Amino acid sequence: MRRLLALVAALLALRLRPALATDPYAFFDWDVSYVTAAPLGVKQQVIGVNGKFPGPVVNVTTNWNVVVNVLNDLDEPLLITWNGIQHRKNCWQDGVLGTNCPIPSGWNWTYEFQVKDQIGSFFYFPSTGLQRAAGGFGGIVVNNRDVIAVPFGRPDGDITILIGDWYSKNHTDLRKMLDKGKDLGIPDGVLINGKGPYRYNDSLVPAGIEYETFNVHPGRTYRIRVHNVGSSTSLNFRIQGHNLLLVETEGSYTTQQNYTNLDIHVGQSYSFLVTTDQNASSDYYVVASARQVSNESLWHHVTGVAVLRYSNSGGPASGPLPDPPQDQNDRSFSMNQARSVRWNLSAGAARPNPQGSFRYSAINVTQAYLLRSTAPVWIAGRRRATLNGLSYARPETPLRLADAYGVHGVYTLDFPERPPPASGGAPPRVARAIINGTYRGFMELIFQNNDTRMQSYHMDGYAFFVVGMDYGEWDEDSRGTYNKGDGVARSTIQVYPGAWAAVLVSLDNVGVWNVRSQNLDSWYLGQEVYVRVVNPEDSGNKTEVAIPRNALYCGQLHKYQKEQTPHHKMGVSAAARRSSSAARWLVSAALLLAGSFVLAL
User: Fold this and answer.
1) Residue-wise DSSP of 369-436
2) Minimal CA–CA distance to 164: which of 127, 138, 194?
3) E strands of 416-540, at which residues?
4) What is the SS3 assignment for 32?
5) Is the Cβ–Cβ distance between 310 and 280 less than 8 Å?
6) Is residue 47 classed as helix, strand or coil in its secondary structure?
7) What is the mean pLDDT of residues 149-170?
8) SS3 500
């Protein structure tokens, strides 16, 4: 009741913001709690949003303002991050520990951000303590405004598909394993939209597992948005008998190419057009299977299988699954496939001007960082993951909050531009060194993966241009191989074992932004850094919004925090539900007063 009445107040307050009147607001009210589920046949504790696993799809349009009121009904702190949403001028809403204090158990906190000048396919997830391994994730769809042309016809439907490896252990048990210096090991399976595999093989899939079914009509075209929300496994995605026409990835329209399958790495998002042009004698398999793994024979069970069912289907799917690429470990095939994903230079995106009007190759690089990762190492008795020999130590006081209040000593600005020499260099250490980015500079980031397994890396606050990748050690001559014309702009890049990937990014978004391994175990063990971008000439919040009035305070700034009475919703009484219903009526009344709002409670 109290939360909904607060939402009414927010609606009425927002009505008094004439400068934003042309940009609609979408309101969401989320209770994030534990839910009992058995996606692989074993009951376990997963994280749901409003009792659902996975969480709801956030469906908005370019420039809309998004307000998400989150009640943390878990028994530990919580943050939600918005993978690929750039939060222009507003890192306060990014939902990672470098910018936000976590929401204490039983408390609620309201995110408010604008999807400024963005379109495309993204997802959200809980960002702390391996919680994504337990769920809490869901899709984000940012639609084009009606006045902006889309480079393909209007689809007959829009389907979000969340794929990811899965462990039957709770995330708290996985944390304990990492804290003890152990590997997480081979996952127990792959989920598709939170459900286990269709029983395509009686010896590999036990009876009684619930699987996902995508119901379609023949002769139509659907936009399918696929996100790898898993912990650490690259997955090959395919639909039996159907082509995947790639049209967009992480907010950029791509050149349109047909694939029979595509490797989707941890943290990546793609959208395809799929035409239902096959006969309907039976259902079709939808498959997500492990890629780029060692000892392939041990990974057969790490396969997610759903069903594509035509409305006139003649029967269930049967027989063998559609083949993955011929060689499970053919990294040249996978890398060439990745290189084939190119920017559509002639299409507009969030704005009417073509994407290709931004000519990144004509801009001089002002800063360059070579970030080398290796297999985890032991530092002071603990197993840690590093970049350039440094393992990031998470602060008690968020970096951006420390800056705002003049708290010194929380971090240093001396992250090394190059890794230490392979021999004779400084030993690995734990530090809180971050990158001092130059506002309106142009940065080159080279990710060098000297580990023996796949990695993928993400940068908050930006889309970067993927200009090169190859096997071996990167050197200065590698720049001669860069794509200088149509490297796609995205926010997560895969880096193959023993290989490098290079990206370019224009530092035009003020804030403190996370660069991290998307592999949850590497991230948890310290493989991340932050890029601090400050406009030295801004004294009036023109290039960065002010600290939100509802900011949470922790660490050295805890004294500023007003206590909140925990108000878990578990075990809500009938009277409380009636009060909630009355409050929703008040919200509806407020909507009539407030104008252009969308409410999703």
Assistant:
1) EEEEE-S-EEETTEEE--BTTEEEPPPSS-HHHHHHTT--SS-BS---SSPPPTTTSPPPEEE-B-EE
2) 194
3) 429-431, 435-438, 442-449, 455-459, 464-471, 489-490, 492-495, 499-506, 511-517, 528-534
4) strand
5) yes
6) strand
7) 97
8) strand
d(CA 427, CA 419): 11
pLDDT recorded at residue 329: 56
pLDDT at 216: 98
Nearest to 234 by CA among 172, 175, 304: 304
**500: pLDDT strictly greater than 50:** yes
494-125-387 Cα angle (round to 5): 40
Backbone torsions φ then ψ of 507, nearest 5 degrees: -85, 70
The whole-angstrom separation of Cα 22 and Cα 330 is 51
The answer, yes or no, to whether residue 480 has pLDDT greater than 50, is: yes
Alpha-carbon dihedral angle through residues 45, 46, 52, 54, given to the nearest 10 degrees: -160
HSE-up of residue 583 (Cα within 13 Å, Cβ side): 17
Query: How many residues in total does the chain contain?
Result: 601
Q: What is the DSSP pairing of strand 269-275 with strand 244-249? A: antiparallel
- Give residue-wise pLDDT tens across range 581-590: 334 433 433 4
Q: Compute the distance between CA of residue 97 and CA of residue 396 in angstroms, rounded to an integer.
A: 8
For position 357, what pLDDT does the model report? 86
> pLDDT averaged over the chain?
91
Cα(31)–Cα(506) distance, rounded to whole angstroms? Answer: 37
pLDDT in tens, 401-432: 999 999 999 999 999 999 999 777 899 999 99
Q: Please give the structure tokens belonging to residue 374.
A: 């290796």
pLDDT at 578 over 90: no
What 3-state DSSP class applies to 151?
coil
Determine what percent of the chain is predicted with pLDDT higher than 70.
91
Mean pLDDT calculated for residue range 15-43: 82
Paired tokens of 216: 């379609």
Structure-token pair, residue 404: 């705002």
Two structure tokens written together for 153: 């016809």
Give the helix/strand (H/E) hosting 173: helix 171-179
**pLDDT-derived band of residue 296, with 50, 70 and 90 as boundaries?**
confident
Residue 339 backbone phi and psi in degrees, to 5: -65, -25
Between 5 and 16, name the one with better pLDDT.
5
**Is the CB of residue 293 less than 8 Å from the CB of residue 327?**
no
What the block records as the tokens of 368 is 């360059």
CA 556 to chain centre: 29
Q: How far apart are the first and last CA of the chain?
A: 13
